[in-house]
Amino acid sequence: MAGFVELDQVSLKYNEEDSAPALYKTSFSVAKGEFVAIVGPSGCGKSTLMKVVTGLWPATAGRVTVDGKPVVGPLSFVGMAFQNSSLLPWRTTLDNVMLPLEIVKPHAGRLRKERDKYEAQARALLELVGLKGYEQKFPWQLSGGMQQRTQLCRALIHEPSLLMLDEPFGALDMFTREELWLALQRLWMAGRPTVILVTHDLREATFLADRVLVMSARPGRIVLDRNVAASRPRGLETTYEPEAVALVHELREHISAARANA
Questions:
Q1: What is the DSSP letter of 20?
Q2: 8 A C-beta contact, residue 53 and residue 80
Q3: Which domain holds residue 153?
Q4: What CATH number has the domain bearing residue 61?
Q5: How far from the centroid of its chain's Cα atoms is residue 37's Cα?
Q6: Domain count, the chain
Q7: Distance CA 76, CA 160 (A)
Q8: Model pLDDT, residue 46
Q9: What CA–CA distance (Å, rounded) separates 158 from 139?
Q10: Residue 180 falls within a domain, yes or no?
């Protein structure tokens, strides 16, 4: 059965002068509703992979399909969140969350008539991540963790079928990151979008994902694919259980080997 996201022997060179491609014959599949994390050494092409999947950069070779269709340009049904929250400073928390509804079809055409319904959805998302009561605050009135919670809600408000997360918690302290793992788990379980998470944090990968993929050093390709057996919902204590610790060690060993062979 074909996956919701499919990469088949995908290679990418940003320009002809590059001595090595950023990606080389990379293949993997993500099922609909699955949560997959991608880890690997710095510079291995994890963020490049995100651009290829979402159509922001065309592959040099190979085939990329999402929802059974070839990716030939930027996808409109994707939600994205990054390390920097990129909230608009002149908009309140609620208005920042609702921003995609003003842009993405078919919501943009319905927003004026159905604003109350959409606003209720935005408030429900904010409550789900612990931001009830902060709807009228501006980004400068929020902590870094609150800004990232807001960004996650904004990425999900238009109910995307694919959510792409590129180091969304990388700039935060460990305690805040762990709180946001739980918040993201709640959001994912509520709607079950297909998620691809790029992260350097191996505990984060094994806590959040159904599967963890390890990339080689540049040129990037998938060198390990491991299932995460823990049931959901997961508590933070599961990251210290023997199976989770063993998986983190296995992932670290493969990443270390990839760096040594770079």
A1: S
A2: no
A3: 87-160
A4: 3.40.50.300
A5: 8
A6: 2
A7: 9
A8: 87
A9: 21
A10: no
User: Torsions phi, psi of 40, nearest 5?
Assistant: 160, 175
Q: Are the beta carbons of 47 and 166 closer than 8 angstroms? A: yes
- Mean pLDDT of the chain, nearest integer: 91
Question: How far is residue 133's CA from residue 94's CA, in Å, rounded to a whole number?
Answer: 10
Residue 11 within any structural domain of the chain: yes
Do 156 and 230 fall within a single domain? no
Q: If you search the block for the tokens 């070779």, which residue do you land on?
A: 61
The tokens for 116 are 């109350």
C-alpha 55 chain-centroid distance: 15
Task: Indicate whether 103 pLDDT > 90.
Answer: no
139 preceded by a cis bond (ω within 30 of 0): no
∠ CA 27-4-196, rounded to 5°: 70
56 part of a folded domain: yes
Q: Round to whole Å and give the CA distance between 180 and 254.
A: 27
**Poorest-pLDDT segment among 15-24, 102-111, 125-134, 181-190:** 15-24
Is the pLDDT at 211 greater than 60, yes or no?
Answer: yes
Q: Do residues 148 and 113 share a domain?
A: yes
Q: Are 70 and 9 part of one and the same domain?
A: yes
SS3 194: strand
Q: Which residues lie closer than 8 Å to 79 by C-beta, 6 or more apart?
A: 100, 154, 155, 156, 158, 160, 162, 163, 164, 193
